[in-house]
Write a structure and sequence with these properties.
Blueprint: E1 2-5, H1 16-23, H2 31-42, H3 47-53, H4 59-70, H5 74-87, H6 92-103, E2 107-112, H7 116-125, H8 128-131, E3 134-137, H9 138-141, H10 148-158, E4 165-169, H11 172-180, E5 184-187, H12 191-200
Helix pairs in contact: 1-2, 3-4, 4-5
């Protein structure tokens, strides 16, 4: 079994409502306001941000498009975008789970919707090549989850049949897409529940 990790919300912190409440307090004074603003800012990772995720638009273009669409000052949007790397803090429990899986002899990969600048930041800040045998960033393949194309690209890159892949992701739509293509998949909520599931599947010792 090859185990495939999503990044945002799984290995690295990514929670837009609290993120926006921290970095944009004059617009998002609390998480409820942050959640509402996130819908316009990130568009559920479609639209302007989706193009950024897929490497079809660079950061400058994306900031301009968001400003034109929303009326928010462009410099404020740039400040939010520049703050994203620091939001992507390592989730220590997941890092420990990765170490345990590797110690148990499992091969790990990643499949992440991630714009190229943030992918480069993560590569420079963390030993991804030590943790994972290989991985796919959406910004580099010009496709993003939950589209079938990125799952097909990933399966080919990982060099195994879909049924041999167990995918951990925190978005139900991505889990459903993977399962429809024959992957095994499980909805990630916390490192602790993920470990329980891996034990249940016989991939880790209790």
């Amino acid at each position: 079994m090859k185990i495939v990790f999503d990044f945002g919300g799984v290995l690295f912190r990514w929670h837009p409502p609290s993120f926006l409440a921290r970095v944009w307090p004059h617009r998002a004074p609390d998480e409820d306001a942050g959640a509402a603003i996130a819908k316009d800012f990130f568009q559920a990772y479609t639209g302007d941000w989706g193009a950024f995720d897929q490497g079809l638009a660079d950061a400058d273009t994306t900031a301009t498009r968001i400003a034109e669409r929303t009326g928010w000052p462009r410099d404020e949007i740039v400040a939010v975008m520049n703050a994203v790397p620091q939001e992507l803090q390592l989730i220590e429990g997941t890092a420990a789970l990765i170490a345990e899986l590797k110690q148990a002899g499992h091969t790990l990969h990643f499949l992440s919707n991630m714009p190229v600048p943030y992918a480069e930041y993560l590569e420079s800040s963390h030993p991804l090549d030590e943790w994972f045998e290989s991985g796919v960033f959406s910004g580099r393949v010009k496709q993003s989850k939950p589209a079938q194309e990125i799952f097909d690209l990933a399966r080919s890159a990982f060099g195994v049949d879909a049924s041999e892949l167990l995918f951990l992701d925190d978005h139900p739509a991505n889990i459903e897409a993977a399962q429809a293509l024959g992957w095994q998949a499980w909805l990630f909520t916390t490192p602790e529940t993920a470990r329980e599931e891996l034990v249940r599947r016989g991939l880790l010792a209790a």
